[in-house]
Amino acid sequence: MMKRFLSLILVILLIPANAQERVGSGRLDVLKEGAEDGYLRAINVREFDFPADHGPHSGYRHEWWYLTGNLEDDNGRKFGYELTFFRLALSPDAIESSSPWRTNVAYAAHFAVTDVEGDDFHFFDRYSRGDGRLAGADEAQVWIDDWRLENDGDKWIVEAGEEDVALTLDMTPIKPMMFNGDQGLSQKSEAPGNASYYYALTRLESSGTLKIGEEEFRINGLTWLDREWGTSALSAEQVGWDWYALHLSDGSDLMFYNLRNSDGTQHPYSAGSWFSSDGQKTALDNDDIIVEVTDTWESPLGGIYPSGWKMFWRDKGLELTVTPMIKNQELNVTPRYWEGAVSVTGTQNGAPIGGSGYVELTGYSN
Amino acid sequence: MRHVIKALASYLFRRPGQLALAIIGMAVGIAVIVAVDIANDSAKRSFDASLTAITGEATHQIIGGPTGLDEQTYIDLRLQGFRSIAPVVEGTIRLENERFQVLGIDIFAESSFRDYETGGSGGGTSGGTNSFGLLTETGGVLMNADAADRLGLSEGDVIAVSRMAKESSGKVLAITQGEGFERVLVVDIATAQEWLGLEGILTRIDVTLENDDDQSAIHSFLPPNARLLNAERRNSSILEMSTGFNTSLTAMSLFALLVGVFLIYNCMSFMVLQRRSIIGVLRALGVTRVQLVASLLTEGMMVAAVGVLLGLGGGILLGEQLVALVSMSMTDHYSLIRGDDATVETFTIVKGVTAGVLATLIAVAVPATEAVSYPPRLTLVRSVVEESARNMLLWLAIAAALLILGAGAVLTFSNVSLFAGFFALFLVILSAALLAPLVVKYMTPLLTIIMGRIGGLAGRIAVRGILKSLSRTGVAIAALSIAVAEIVGMGVMIGSFRDNVEDWLVSSLQSDVYVSVPGRSGGVSLNGINPDLIAELTSQPGIAGHNPVRTVWIEEESGSTLLRATDLNFEKMRGFDFLEGNGEEIWEPFTAGEGVIVSDPYAYRQNLSKGDEVTLPTAGGLRDFTVLGIYRDYNTGSGVISIDRDIYVRHWHDDIIDTMGIYLQDGVDEAEVIESLQDIAAPKQALMIGSNQRLKEFSLEIFDRTFIITNVLYWLAMIVAFVGVLAAALALSLERGKEIAILRSLGMTTKQIFKLVVIQCGSMGLIAGLFALPVGMASGWLLIDVINRRAFGWQIDMLIPWDSIGIALVISIATALIASLYPAWVVTRNTPVAMLREE
Fold this sequence. Notes:
The complex is a heterodimer of chains A (366) and B (839).
Chain A: H1 4-13, E1 62-73, E2 78-89, E3 105-115, E4 120-129, E5 135-138, E6 141-144, E7 147-152, E8 155-162, E9 165-173, E10 178-179, E11 185-187, E12 195-212, E13 215-230, E14 238-248, E15 253-261, E16 271-275, E17 281-284, E18 290-293, E19 296-298, E20 304-306, E21 309-313, E22 318-324, E23 330-331, E24 337-348, E25 351-361
Antiparallel strand pairs in A: 1-2, 1-13, 2-3, 3-4, 5-6, 6-7, 7-8, 8-9, 9-12, 10-12, 11-12, 12-13, 14-15, 14-25, 15-16, 16-17, 18-21, 19-20, 21-22, 22-24, 23-24, 24-25
Chain B: H1 2-13, H2 16-55, E1 60-63, E2 69-70, H3 71-79, E3 85-95, E4 98-105, H4 107-110, H5 131-136, E5 140-144, H6 145-151, E6 158-163, E7 166-176, E8 184-188, H7 189-196, E9 201-202, E10 204-207, H8 212-219, E11 227-230, H9 231-242, H10 246-273, H11 276-284, H12 289-328, H13 346-373, H14 376-379, H15 382-391, H16 393-413, H17 418-468, H18 470-508, E12 513-516, H19 531-538, E13 543-556, E14 559-566, E15 578-580, H20 583-591, E16 595-599, H21 600-606, E17 613-618, E18 621-631, E19 640-644, H22 645-652, E20 659-664, H23 670-681, E21 688-691, H24 692-706, H25 708-735, H26 737-745, H27 750-792, H28 802-829, H29 832-837
Parallel strand pairs in B: 4-8, 5-7, 14-19, 16-18
Antiparallel strand pairs in B: 1-10, 1-11, 2-9, 3-4, 3-6, 3-10, 5-8, 6-7, 12-20, 12-21, 13-14, 13-20, 15-18, 16-19, 17-18
Helix pairs in contact in B: 1-12, 2-10, 2-12, 2-13, 2-25, 10-13, 10-17, 10-18, 10-25, 12-13, 16-17, 17-18, 17-27, 18-24, 18-25, 18-27, 18-28, 25-28, 27-28
């Protein structure tokens, strides 16, 4: 998934956190052309091996564990959440040292909670050296400080909290893994190696508690977990992307990303996947899905975001209306981006269909 | 009034030499006041700035035991969700012969704590800091622009650092501008651990706490050996302790202020007195008293303005030199002080200007008011002034007595206040100055006889002249006395101090040979002598026994204390000079772990007596130890606690040995043993191995280095006094030109006149020198028993340093004699006719 590349830039720009103005982007050797030298590349289709592949892939430059979910309490009060962990290698090889603090790996994480009824959005970010103590990952877990995602075979556990917001979830996958692209090899451009390994657990049945301020909610819902790693460079003509991950009420899942070029056109490598309720994947091309923006939202911090869409998939007779659950779900990190819970209504061949999901919008904040 | 000023000034301009002298006198006086202040302030300020910058925004610090803090404590806190904490690994390191503070940080935890880049005031880095480099570049350094300039380093340069004989290499990643980081190398925490040999250890965790709830929350997660201390309180203690060296500078500045003010007074009042005749004439011509006083004041202020400006300029230049000297004499503890950055506080300028203006006002107003208070005819007569000056003696004596009583009261009613100590010193010196004329009065009869023997008629006339011109000579003698008293006082203090230290070194250094790891300094150190090597070294022939020692710093909010764990089985308590307690009685409970013995400064500071308890942070938490005895120790002003080594190892879980005393069998050749020990150790570990004698010498070298600046200030004080005496001598001689002319007309030869002037000045020097001795001794006593005690807690037996007393006397007389040469030459050069015609 290319959408997460921008998040990688976030990681880089945000070291050290809150001090981004100190770091001139010209010095960011990591994402410069040629900076991939020495790292492994995603060139061939691989045989995935679990649970090892839930853990980090240290030869590759970057990697993430990306959770988004729509939750409801017993009274039907709706919430959304995002919890992401990024691993970024700062150099291809580990550095020898007598100090356990020395590492060539950095971790970052974003945590956001959308309180639909309260029309409130909470977000937090964290950064750490990946020394395997303060932050790190193995096949059973990934963590920064006390934010963590754990996996013990069938079960997954989420724990994250900051200030007066805290989330704990127990999660069980109810659909098999979806391997994007060509059996999990997701090509980003024509250049060999400019690709990533990419799989997802699209439906994790989730239940747990969410605390916001003094209130505590018992919550249930669905989480989408994306896993991706690779060593790719950014495409020069892209300015941002819109990404949709939707759980539909018929048990199918739709993921699509629209890469936006600087001239306003849609990049030909825009793509997606449809994952049927019985776990059959259909790859989607650039022109399979048509998206129309129906509304916009102006960030108080600057920038106008799309804020309502119509999506058409003619071959399937699918027409969806995608609406943000609340307008302001912008994470004010650097660079700023919008990632929020959405509700879905629509029809498939005339029959009503609904759902919920998450949308990510990048490249609008300037 | 313009005409009046013109008339007064025309007289002055005909004597440009005197005008120049008044200005120089004023300038020198102010320069010394300003320079000493600058030295004082700058040292303190740069230390404070560094301390504040390094502490950053932290409100609290988590401090571990002497072996530091297990870094797992930090990791556990993070995993528990504590957010506003940052790990720090700190220590000192050598880079191109300069000592730097290494500040090892984690950039991910850092941003809200320190601003090592801009000091919060803009500036920025050269092209943005490559923060990644800190992580990925082993030895990567963010270097302050100041240090980089000084060492001629730029971005990308490779550097070699060393610590405890261990070399490491690094690389300048970026040049930063943060204020207070001039002597700090900012590195990644991993680099700091590698360089300092502190793998797995933090020297502290910085914490920003918003409220007491956070505090108790964090408290409950800390292991027993870790403590949460208030950063601000801790810093102010460190600052207080570390700037203790300022004490002698402060004393100096006090002397400088007084001597300077007297010099100004002397020069300015002379300018008025000299023109009594013109004042008389002007009065007779109908100029009112108010007009005259106003004119004289205006003129005085104009002269003062020039003098003050020159003095400020000179003072700043001189101050810069002094700052460099201060930083040169600094020991490890003060490595944060920059030598090349003199800062001039507004207060310093205000102080200098005020001293100049006030002294001028008084110096002009008193004689001017007096001069105009007589009928015009009487004003013309010089003797009237002297008459009234002599009448004032009684009042001066009463005032002096009151000042001394005041000083006594201040000392009695202030317990430990250092400021009160200085105030008492000030009062004593001031009272001495007031007594100077009285001393002149009572010493002249005896001197007249002595000088009569030496110089005949000229000698007798010379000495009587001193008394006759008391208004002038009194002030000059007071200034010289204070300057000389300073030399005596400081001499007494430093001499006694050094002597006590020497005695203490002889008695406390009981071992014959000392082995230690190199470069030990404050902070956490895990560097010890290799245990196998200890076994090998101590099993060499000729060795009777050894004393393994571990010296660590105990950090508390109230400052750092040295804790020395030592095995005294061989030397028992012979090395201690107990002020409280008895060595033989202490031995049993000491080795049984029932208590500790503490140094005198520590007991003084903590207000401890034998039998009291001290609470020390051990590995298992806070623990009380009984004070078994209090002993003399000059090791550090913060104090030393000595504990039996077995007890230390048990409570602190630290069996490192960083120093070892070795006792030789009788008749064994010391040099031979040292050589063989060095041969054994050399291939295995870099150690310092030296004789008892060498260690003593080394300790005294450090002692002497601390007082380098004192020597410089001696000479400054002498220059001030010299100008003062020169001004007085010149004034006397010129003013009494007519009298001298008459003497010459009466048949005195130029040689006799020369002798007269020289004897007169020499006598003034003698009076000042003799008077300075008791004053100096009194100051010395105050410096030792009050100021040093209150500043450092050191108890020093006072000695009379005959050499510095002798030197002081010689300097006093020599200064006066040298100052007499020019006026003597002037008066003998003029013919009597010319001198008489002037009237």
